[in-house]
Structures are given as structure tokens and as C-alpha cells.
Amino acid sequence: MTGWRDLLPVPLAAPETPMLRGARIRVIMGCAVLSATVLFFGELRTLSRPLAFPWLGATVTFVIVQGWLWLKAKNAADDAWLMQGREDQDAG
């Protein structure tokens, strides 16, 4: 036995492409900025009251949009990876 992958009867997921890796990193960094924004929201409001809520809204919107796009691309790549070589894939 050469490793733990020999124990699994199916492939786990598609290999990560540079595009998917970049999207994943954008989502992670967006979540980090969002968590810092929520953590320091009181200080942000005292420094710049008119910009606090738009900043929070823009950060939340960025994380939601990037997360949705990344999940959509990742699911498509995983589906293509798992269905490669199947004869019945054209029938559906």
C-alpha cells in the first residue's frame, strides 16, 4: 500500500487550478477583512462615521459575491473531474 489514497474507491475532488486557488484566497482574505471590520467596528465608527456602514456593506457584499463565484466554479470543476470517462455523461 502506497498511501491513504489507495483506500478510497473514488477521486476526492478536482485538482486546484491557479484560477480556483486565486478565488479561494480572495474569499479567505475577504473573510479576514470582514472579521477585522466587525471586530473593530466601534473604532471605525469613531474615526470615520460616514464611511463605517458603507465599508461594512461593501465588505459583506464582496465576501458573498466572491464566495458564490468560487463555490460555483469549484462545483463545476469537481463535477467535471468526477464525471470524466463515464459513458453515460452524454445521456443526461
Provide structural commentary.
The chain crosses the membrane at residues 25-44, 51-71. Keywords: Membrane, Transmembrane, Transmembrane helix. The chain has 92 residues and is an all-alpha fold. The chain has one domain. It has helices at 18-39, 41-47, 49-83. The chain is elongated, with a radius of gyration of 20 Å. The protein starts with 17 loop residues before the first helix and ends in a 9-residue tail after the last helix.
Q: In total, how many beta strands?
A: 0
Strand-and-helix sequence, N→C? HHH
Number of domains: 1
Q: Biggest sheet, open or closed, and with what strands and sense? A: none
Number of helices: 3
Radius of gyration: 20 Å
β-strand amount: under 5%
Question: End-to-end distance, in Å?
Answer: 37 Å
Point out poorly predicted stretches. none
Report the principal-axis shape.
Answer: elongated
Q: Overall mean pLDDT score?
A: 85
Question: Portion of residues in helices?
Answer: 55-70%
Query: Class by helix and strand content?
Result: mainly alpha
